[in-house]
Write a structure and sequence with these properties.
Blueprint lengths: L4 H7 L2 H24 L4 H12 L1 H13 L2 H12 L9 H21 L18 H27 L4 H15 L10 H4 L4 H24 L4 H17 L4 H21 L1 H6 L11
Helix pairs in contact: 2-3, 2-4, 2-7, 4-7, 6-11, 6-12, 7-8, 7-11, 8-10, 10-11, 10-12
Length: 281
């Protein structure tokens, strides 16, 4: 395939995309934070949270519309719905990496005197309610439809996958910032310790490398990334890992990400994305 990277650079506008994605999320989420301390009802807070979550998807749709490119639209729809892009041999990795890492991390934490009760499943979790289950599925669906739908490709059109993953990891991690100011929200509870707060940002940064690798190794399948993201969310929601254990999880995922980068040096450091298909195709 001829190198069409210059065409990709002209079609993709990363600065505009991330500005829209951040603006929508931060406006609604900081508003949520305000009302969480000033008498906002559960319904209002839930609506504002949902609207903020729409940021990446809305940004992607706006950018595809602005591109006036039928090819980009067709490519997006195929990546969004086609299962044939997924490499079947990677399904165990997609579905079970994070749960497996969590089990290993819990085992290590028990050696440090932490509770073996972490080896349980929280069937009484708040995520077992209808709104909780909807949120569990909607969050990764909307995020991946935006991040992997447009955002990562837009960064990839201008740099190597390694630099893309560095950039996206930082952007994705700090995109969550308003959530730390919402009273009673999970991220807000992490502020009790600088270590736990830092661990969240580092874990998001590390996961960016892993998901981006899955994205390009599965022919830019958004569904593959959604399934990985969903699997991680389900594991984190229903397995009661302590914060100490979550720090161990981050270390283990960092090792996994390091191995992935080393074993895929050509993909991360050499291949140029041509604006169609996976890098190097």
């Amino acid at each position: 395939m001829p190198d069409t990277s210059m065409n990709a650079r002209s079609l993709y506008k990363p600065a505009q995309f991330f500005l829209i994605a951040y603006s929508i999320a931060w406006v609604f989420w900081f508003t949520t934070a305000y009302f969480s301390y000033h008498g906002g009802t559960g319904g209002l807070l839930g609506l504002l949270m949902f609207l903020g979550l729409c940021g990446p998807l809305a940004a992607a749709l706006v950018m595809f519309w602005k591109s006036k490119s039928p090819e980009l639209w067709d490519d997006y729809k195929d990546r969004l719905f086609s299962l044939r892009r997924i490499n079947p041999r990677m399904l165990p990795f997609i579905l079970f990496l994070v749960p497996a890492v969590m089990i290993v991390a819990i085992g290590i934490s028990v050696l440090f005197g932490k509770s073996p009760g972490q080896f349980t499943i929280l069937l009484g979790s708040s995520f077992m309610t209808l709104p909780g289950l909807i949120g569990l599925f909607v969050a990764p669906a909307f995020e991946e439809a935006g991040w992997r739908g447009y955002g990562v490709d837009s960064l990839r059109s201008r740099s190597t996958l390694f630099v893309t993953s560095l950039s996206f990891g930082l952007l994705w991690a700090f995109w969550h910032t308003p959530l730390f100011f919402i009273s009673g929200f999970y991220h807000n509870t992490l502020l009790s310790s600088w270590l736990y707060t830092a661990n969240f940002f580092v874990s998001a940064f590390v996961l960016a490398f892993i998901i981006n690798w899955l994205f390009y190794r599965n022919n830019r399948s958004i569904i593959a990334c959604f399934l990985f993201h969903l699997s991680a969310n389900i594991a984190m929601s229903f397995i009661p890992a302590e914060q100490f254990t979550k720090c161990i999880i981050t270390v283990l995922l960092l090792i996994v990400a390091g191995v992935i980068v080393i074993m895929n040096r050509k993909l991360f450091f050499e291949d140029k994305w041509c604006g169609d298909g996976a890098p190097g195709e």
